[in-house]
Design goal:
alpha/beta; TIM Barrel; four-stranded parallel beta sheet; 8 strands; globular; hydrolase activity; Metal_Hydrolase; carboxy-lyase activity; Amidohydro-rel; ACMSD
Amino acid sequence: MPDSSNVYNGYIESSAGALIDVHGHFGRSAATGYTADADALLAAMDRHGITTTLVMPQPATARETSEQVHAEIADAAARTPQRIAGIVNIDPRLPEADYRRAAGVLLDEAGFVAVKIHTHGFQVAPDDPVCDKVFRLAADRGVPVMIHTGLGGPHTLPHRVLAPAGRYRQVPTVLCHAGFGAFCGEAIEAAIDRPNIYLEPSWCPAFSVRQMVRRLGAHRVMFGSDHIENIPVELAKFEAVRLTPAERRQVFAATAATVFPLTPVNDARPEVSA
């Protein structure tokens, strides 16, 4: 796991009240038809006072579409530094040389900050041997792995992360949706068993989020929205949980600043539009 002291202190000291959303998307979802782009996301970030959003493509069946959306994310990140950062979301079933070449360009040249295994979108389990290449690359580049959990079949269940998270204990592993409501308890148990597992609880009920913070600590939980329209819902959920001020700062920014190689921002959390 990375040394978090410098990035944590630099980020938090320079951005009091920061709000980092670790789960955003560009492109069109093949499963739901949901679409989003840079203009819509930035407008929503301004409305809700979000400092930085980490963005990945929706899982797409066509490789050309995936490449196009990754390029759009890279362009948005270059135009709005420290507001948008990219997450690699490439089919892990590609041959390793092809996967490492494509992901490496995004990590090394476009400054992406994580790699994603979209278990539902690509119909693959994180403990499938084909996904080892994702963890190997993350270990080599010093970035976390994000994994879709809890919706889409048995290959998305949180316990499927235990084996690779155990083999790659130096790689922070983020369970996106933290089991997606129905499997929140399984996600919590997985995180208890593997200290390099962190939970992003978008779409989870408030009482489950409260359990995550109480059982794991706020330093293992991070804010994510998934969809633009879901941002106010997720914010309201954390209000209902009634975190302490210290827990709130941790979940809203400090956990993410510890896990992801983010560039410190110079300004505080933007003013929320009326």
